[in-house]
Amino acid sequence: MPRIPLTWLGEHVEIPADLSAEQLAADLVRVGLEEEAILPAAVSGPLVVGLVVERTPEEQKNGKTINWCRVEVGPEHNEPGGAPRGIVCGAHNFEVGDSVVVALPGAVLPGPFPIASRKTYGHVSDGMICSQRELGLGDDHAGIIVLSRLGIEAAPGTDARELLGLGEEVLEINVTPDRGYCFSMRGVAREYSLSTGARFTDHGLPTSPLPVAGGGFAVEIDDAAPINGVPGADRFVAQVVRGVRANDPSPRWMQQRLQQAGMRPINLAVDVTNYVMLDLGQPLHAYDLAKVAAPIVVRRAVSGEKIRTLDDVERALDPEDLVITDSPDGVRSSRVIGLAAVMGGGDSEVGPDTTDLLIEAAHFDPITVARTARRHKLPSEAAKRFERGADPLLPRVAVARTVALLVEHGGGVPDAEVTDVFDVVPPQSFVLPLDLPARLVGVDYTPDEVRDVLVSIGCVVETAGPDAVRVTPPSWRPDLLVGVDLVEEVARLRGYDAIPSILPSAPGGRGLTPGQRTRRSVARALAESGLVQVLSYPFMGTEQLDALGVPPDDARRRAVRLVNPLSDEQPFMRTTLLVTLLDTARRNVGRGATDVAIFETGLVTRPLADAPPAPRLPGGIRPSDAQLAAIDAAIPPQPQRVAGVLAGAREPAGWWGPGRRADHTDALAAARLVADVVGVELTVTADADHLPWHPGRCARLSVGDVSLGFAGELHPNVVAAHGLPARAVAFELDLDALLAAAPAEPYQAWAVSTFPVAKEDIALVVPADVPAADVLDAVRVGAVASPAGDVVEDIRLFDVFEGEQVGAGNRSLAFALRLRADDRTLTAQEAAAVREAVVAEAHRRFGATLRA
Predict the structure, then answer these.
(1) Each residue of 261-306: pLDDT tens digit?
(2) Which is it for strands 649-651 and 660-661: parallel, antiparallel or unpaired?
């Protein structure tokens, strides 16, 4: 995020002498640049220039020699009576008569490090003589700052904070991706001018005629694989400067500004390029001329190529990466010396012996830069600017400014020839109806107001009819492409506060869809039955499927792998809710909640075996209809599921009784409850083997011929793998398929009958291998077919018995029938007829007999 020192900003735009960072933030937020932070002054309290008038070395018992000094710090800060202050100093790089920087008691140095009078080495030290590191000005801590050696002359008592720029607040702002030009003092100053009307001076324009480009270091742009038809580079400016003291430190003022902007000073060559980038917004790079060989070629990388970047990391390149190459062995573009617009290479960096420099400033495609920076995880300062859109007309000015600063502070002579490969396409103009801003924003902007805004942001405006203008955006605004972009600029600069807040009225007759209402009803019913709803991440790993015992050839093993998973242990989208639901149950049991009853509704991803792969589309342009169709075809089905897990006690023990452990009937009851809410009757059949359920204790749940899910007791191995209480149970249903099977007509609840209920309990003896669900179905069919008609209100299996009384190989299933008619009280004969019809139907199907 850009940091804005006020004095630096003042070189581009007129600012009031008393402007504070807080007021600057308020001025900028009016035009959409939000305050991120106000960084306080590096030093607070009294920091003054001092004159050393006495210096007495004193050797200590530990072998260290300190200096007892008397320092003149001005009449206002000297000791009472005007005597110089006494200060103990351990440095030895100064003499009597030198001007130094003194932190007086009450000052706070970076750290924070408060200064106070204290007794040390037998003296009371009344302040501190400061080094560069102590003031946050550099890494040199071996000696104190001697101002006279820096060419700074100031009387004792002068405020050193202002002298060294240590008392200035810095504003840090947040810049949206479409405002890349604000990553510079030039851009922020322009916005401040638009906000306040202050006079702006554009330093992005040449201050004197630039030399005619021609000759110079050979450069070529050879992009054989442009993205979206846009070349990776369309301009490359280069100039040679010879005899430069490239490794000298940059001037103090430049180092100070770089530090205020959050950058570390390195040497003159690097600091100057960074300074110009921060000032104008144009990234630059300095090559050691002795380490590069003509011609430089800008091209796409070749698969297998590598580069050692300036951070000393070797990186494998992608064919989409745009690289800068040279020809050291006479072979054209044989060596990669830089990741274009991201980071330079170590083979051509400025070193201790560098004297001749090749200064480069170019313009690169934002999409190419963004992809390369993210691919190599290199969010460099240059990449931040290029990926947001740099000004293609800046490179010549930036190179000229850089060369001038190098010559001024490092000596040297620039070559007269300047390389300028120029393939920039001018900004495209378009027509803007002058009433469009008013129609879209709802504010009555006049045509003159619209024109004034467009001119103020740098657009060229020409009349295109009585009520329209043709607009050509400025080179630094690549985000202005269509009319609505300009509407946003009008609204921004005329003031968002002028836009009325009108709450639109909600149209009637809308709300949740029937499916949404039903899904909410399902969740509500399960919660009311005692299950707790949970929400888990929809990711899984193969180990979790192994824990469920899913066979290798099972369709649930076919899953979508994520390119950037949150965890390498869970790189796939889940194919069943039980994967994550059982993990949630295990986590709860592991933390002491041994009685678990949880459920979840959510999506699973079930890719088809013959599904085509998703196409890799270029960015920055709208996909074609065929490409969108290919994406749709590649998207895997993602059905909505509902699943539950119950373990431990379903009914707690207490004075009322021993309680009851959750069993398969609870899972089946929960699944039936879901179906009842939807209005669908499930068919329950035994399923011999479907992991993670126990063979023989798993029920398949269907509607007609469509299988919707399973319910029953979990396999012992699955229970053990998840650390759950023994005989835990679970269910899972395809909620989308269940909703699709729901009746088209709204579900009509039965009316409440005012007549009494008739009760019949029937115990039927059937072969032991006959599923109870089949017998229950026979009981229901027989009861409905009785002469009494459809008087069945409820049928429930309440007892299962096996023993000598019913014979070997048989079991007794006892059902409770509750009968009621809407229009009469049932007679004993009608109830008996229902009973006889039930026994007859069960006997017809299974040979069942009535247990005596």
Answers:
(1) 888 888 999 999 999 999 999 999 999 999 999 899 999 999 889 9
(2) antiparallel
- Asked if the 219-422 domain carries CATH number 3.50.40.10, the reply is yes
For the question of whether the overall pTM of this predicted structure is more than 0.85, the answer is: no
Pairing of β 532-533 and β 596-603: parallel
Alpha carbon distance 325, 339 (integer Å): 9
Classified by CATH at the fold level, domain 431-498 comes out as Phenylalanyl-tRNA Synthetase; Chain B, domain 1 (3.30.56)
Bridge partners (DSSP) of residue 413 are 242
CB atoms within 10 A of CB 299: 22
Q: What is residue 436's three-state secondary structure? A: helix
- Could you say which architecture CATH assigns to the domain 514-536+575-604+639-740? 2-Layer Sandwich (3.30)
In the numeric block, which tokens belong to residue 467?
């009520």
CA distances from 427 to 477, 478, 479, 712, 819 (A): 9, 8, 11, 68, 83
758-850 CATH, one of 3.40.50.1110, 3.30.70.380, 1.20.210.10, 3.30.70.100? 3.30.70.380
Nearest by Cα to 521 from 639, 645, 680, 647 = 680
The CATH number of the structural domain formed by 3-40+169-196 is 3.30.56.10
Entry field: residues in the chain: 852
- Pair 768, 811: CB distance under 8 Å: yes
Q: H/E element holding 641?
A: strand 640-647
Radius of gyration of the chain (CA): 41
What does the pLDDT read at residue 689?
80
Strand partners, 58: 66
Q: Strand, coil or helix: what is 197?
A: coil
DSSP 8-state assignment for residue 538:
S
Q: How far apart are CA 401 and CA 279, in angstroms?
A: 10
Query: Two tokens at 162?
Result: 């202002």
Fold of 47-164: OB fold (Dihydrolipoamide Acetyltransferase, E2P) (2.40.50)
Count the neighbouring beta carbons within 10 Å of the beta carbon of residue 474: 16
Side-chain-side CA neighbours of 593 within 13 Å: the count stands at 11
What number of CA atoms fall less than 13 Å from residue 738's CA on the CB side? 29
Q: With beta carbons less than 8 A apart as the criterion, state whether 159 and 101 touch.
A: no
- Count CB-CB contacts under 10 A for residue 794: 10
707: its two tokens: 């299988």
Q: How far apart are CA 771 and CA 768, in angstroms?
A: 8
DSSP 132: T
Helix H or strand E segment including 240? strand 233-242
pLDDT tops 90 at residue 570:
yes
Q: What is the C-alpha separation between 131 and 138, in angstroms, rounded?
A: 9
Distance of alpha carbon 190 from alpha carbon 184, whole angstroms: 10
- Please write the tens of the pLDDT for every residue from 640-678: 999 999 999 999 888 888 889 999 989 999 999 999 999
In the chain, the N- to C-terminal Cα span, in Å, equals 87
